[in-house]
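Structure in, sequence out. Go:
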C-alpha cells in the first residue's frame, strides 16, 4: 500500500472546479450571469464611440446618466442573485422592470442585446428554486415504485380486500336489474 492518499495527488484545478460547481449549484447562477451581462451593454453603449477611418460615430444620448444607472443596477442585481439568493424573486422582478425601462432610456435597451439578456436573467431568477437534497429515508414510498419493500411496510400500507371477478353481490340481489330501474 502507498502511504499517500489519492486525495493528495488531485490537481488543484479539479478541486477548484468541483468547489465552483458546488457553489454554483446552490444559487441562481445563470440568472445572475445573464442579468449582469445585460447590464454591461446598457451602461456601455451611451458612452461608446466608434471610429471608422477619420469619422467618429458617437452613440451618446441625453439619457446617458439614466442608462449608466440602469446598467449598474442590473449588475448589482446579478450579484445579489448570486450572493443573496433568498431575494431572487425581488431581484428578478426588478431586473425585468429595469430591462423594460431601458428600452426608451438607453438606446433601445443597449441595442436590444442588453434588454434581452436582462429579461432572460430576470425570468430565470424568478423561476429558480433551491433543490432539495435526496434522502432515501425521508422520501415517500410512492416516489420509489420499483424499490423492494419489506413485509412490514407492505402490511402497514393496508391494501383493501378485493372480491372475485365473477361475483357482484348487489347485481345478483336485485335479480340482475339496476337499482334505479
Amino acid at each position: 500500500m502507498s502511504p499517500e492518499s489519492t486525495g493528495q495527488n488531485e490537481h488543484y484545478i479539479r478541486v477548484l472546479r468541483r468547489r465552483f460547481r458546488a457553489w454554483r449549484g446552490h444559487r441562481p447562477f445563470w440568472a445572475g450571469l445573464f442579468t449582469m451581462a445585460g447590464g454591461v451593454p446598457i451602461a456601455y453603449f451611451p458612452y461608446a464611440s466608434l471610429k471608422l477611418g477619420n469619422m467618429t460615430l458617437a452613440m451618446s444620448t441625453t439619457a446617458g446618466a439614466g442608462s449608466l444607472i440602469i446598467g449598474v443596477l442590473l449588475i448589482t442585481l446579478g450579484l445579489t442573485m448570486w450572493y443573496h439568493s433568498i431575494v431572487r424573486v425581488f431581484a428578478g422582478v426588478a431586473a425585468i422592470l429595469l430591462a423594460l425601462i431601458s428600452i426608451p432610456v438607453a438606446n433601445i435597451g443597449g441595442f436590444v442585446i442588453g434588454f434581452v439578456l436582462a429579461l432572460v436573467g430576470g425570468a430565470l431568477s424568478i423561476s429558480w428554486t433551491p433543490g432539495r437534497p435526496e434522502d432515501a429515508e425521508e422520501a415517500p414510498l410512492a416516489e420509489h415504485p420499483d424499490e423492494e419493500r419489506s413485509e412490514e411496510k407492505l402490511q402497514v400500507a393496508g391494501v383493501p380486500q378485493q372480491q372475485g371477478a365473477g361475483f357482484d353481490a348487489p347485481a345478483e340481489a336485485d335479480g340482475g336489474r339496476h337499482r334505479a330501474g
